[in-house]
Amino acid sequence: MRLKTSLLKEPKHKELASCVGWTTADELYSCSEDHQILKWNLLNNETSLVIRLPEDIYPIELHWFPKTIGGKKQVQAEIFVLTSTDGKFHLVSKMGRIEKSVEAHKGAVLAGKWNYDGTALVTAGEDGKIKIWSKSGMQRSTLANEGSPVYSVAWSPDSDRILYTSGRQLVVKPLQPSAKVTQWKAHDGIILKVDWNSVSDLILSGGEDCKFKVWDSFGRLLHSSACHDYPVTSLSWAPDGEVFAMGSFNTLRLCDKTGWSYALEKPNTGSVLSLAWSADGTQLAGACGNGHVIFAHVVEQHWEWKNFVITLTKRRSMEVKNVLNDAVDILEFRDRIIKVSLAYDHLVVATSLQCYVYNSRNWNTPLIFDLKEGTVSLILQAEKYILLVDGSGLYTFSYDGRLISSPKFPGMRADLLNAQSVSLSNDTVAIRDQNEEKVILFFDIMSGKSVGDGKPVTHKLEVVEIALDQCGPSSERKIAFIDKNRDLYLTSVRHLRKEPKVCKIGSMVHSMAWNDSANILCGIQDHQFTVWYDPGVVFTDKELLSKILYIKDGSEFSRAPHILSYVGTKVTLRQGDGSLVYSSVPAYPAILHEYSAAARWEDALHLCRFAKSEASTLSRFMSPRCLDALHESGHGNEKDRCLWACLAGMAMANRELSTAEMAYAALGELPRVQYINFIREQPSRESSLAHMLMFSGQIQEAESTLLQAGLIYQAIQMNIDLFYWERALELAVKHKTHVDTVLAYREKFLQKFGRKETNKRFLQYSEGVEVDWEKIQAKIEMELCKEREKAANNPVRSSVAARR
């Protein structure tokens, strides 16, 4: 990716150009110390004079009133705020008429910005004051009074905090008077420019120490650049928060949000004093110290999927290359390309007016449909559906261009959504709530309505990234998410009016991705590349979780790698320096998932045995020294143990007890093998199901299953086995049966440990109930006989998995 720049031979402004601002994607206004405001039309390359300002007005910063608020277009007349050296800010119409001039500061007004919904204006001055104004220009408050000039300000994404410079310090101050102020030393020289992105919530700063830095909203440093030759004079985030531009003397740089540089241009511009991106994020303009206005657009952006590499060659054309046979196709578009996504054998291209959907088997005839008003800011793909996000909402489409649904919820801000806060699968859309970041909402793709009873998942901490798995039926859909502490959790999407079970499966996780064809999850965990071959095993048998991990040492990756995709057996990672690294994952677990989904359990067993025999065969050709080292490290049988652990979890989840028994036996888990045999010996399928739920740790569900089936004794005995004495007694009393059984087992338990009864309820019932073990045994045997007879009278299949 790089910037293609254009510069006129002679500057249109006679003096230093101080600021620029886009009205549309093809129209720009620029201001200069020659007192002129010029309008640049990029469609016909014409430049016209809008207004000649009075001689005492030297403009410093220009900012247009927001055109959209929460996705809705503004009906108010188009105006911009212009700050100047005379201590005033001016509200100027698009035609160039000065609607209002307001005395704001003593000395120059160095910065002025509208908030995101257009309800307030912030100004910063040479006098060190920061003031908040209404949109009509009435002062509301003085937010801060610093002792030195404030060179730059920015609004937070929710418009309730202000970021501003104070010498070498950065300050984040909430508008509420009693709220906590965040302040930190950011640079070794005076800070000249800041910007705060509304989508990624990341902060940029640059100053006289010739560095730019990237921060999170808490003031944690994410990236610090090398020292440039000259001070950083301008910075600007692209609207989607994925890239930013930096300007300095004869320098224009395009950088990724993590800080590394895509491209460096050295135009003859003098200092680039102001940078602005068009609303669709495709074009960049800069105001230059020598009077020039520089324009740039992004080219040579690349996308990869399996054997296809796609390159953006021009604003309206792309090149498709098949690396297997070197075949090249050129795709031409009528309008400017804004967003592109390539996955699941489909290329989706959003232009300013239309959406093009290409199938990788045919690049000549795309499916084309018109887009609603608004610039597409995000495209997500699943195997069957596409999700488009623009300023006004979310829309799901099929690959034949049919609109499926448009999920909505109260307070939704589509303009703030990104790939970390939205996820798509074949049946579900998941969205992290922007107003309450602990909440994850789920929507059915077909209806656009909330899934199930509409109750979202509410986590204890703020969620920073979400991802839905891509395979399996909708009833088994799961979502992985990372919270603010960088812990990784897994939970089910459809939880049938129960409180969802949220299980932690990793910690210090900085990036994650699901596989495209199997429910295998990979992530960067504590600087190691980790793969969870079957993360759903955490709901079946937590003890298996550590056995289904594939871990690769992170030494082959540089600082802070980020996972871009996980397709087939290939994982693509972007390193901290911007380079791409590919890592392969063994193919056996994906095949095992395929066999499990098709209930091909014999094939699954053959696969695990084959992997074991393969490892044994390989060991025959190793030297004794290598073999000893392999056994000492524990890697000799690690691969086949992972597969057996995966198979055990899958078999138990599908209630295929015979396969599960063999898998646990291969792992040497004798207690679990014995318990599986105990489950198989149960007199009825309800008892078997209840004990399988117990095996997975779902005690309440197991008890409910037994009570609903009328198996009161089994429910009481289950609580006795778990030493839940009070619950066992409660059930016995409630159903007026087996009170003596509970008291007998309790007495036996206390005698074993040489203790006396102290529980008042047990003392109360033991006075009036006689404990006779012969009667109790007879009663238990009668209960089991009844259960067997009831099961025999019902058409019950022998296999528990078949019953399911």
UniProtKB/TrEMBL annotation:
Any one GO BP annotation for this protein: cilium assembly
InterPro entries reported for this sequence: Beta-prop_IFT80_2nd (IPR056456), TPR_IFT80_172_dom (IPR056157), WD40 (IPR011659), WD40/YVTN_repeat-like_dom_sf (IPR015943), WD40_repeat_dom_sf (IPR036322), WD40_rpt (IPR001680)
Record's GO cellular component terms: centrosome; cilium; intraciliary transport particle B
Domain of life: Eukaryota
Subcellular localization: Cell projection, Cilium
Pfam families according to UniProt: Beta-prop_IFT80_2nd, PD40, TPR_IFT80_172, WD40
WD repeat spans: 102-134, 184-216
Domain IFT80 second beta-propeller: 300-588
Domain IFT80/172/WDR35 TPR: residue ranges: 643-789
Keywords: Cell projection, Cilium, WD repeat
UniProt KW Cell inner membrane keyword: no
Name the record gives this protein: Intraflagellar transport 80
Native organism: Nothobranchius furzeri
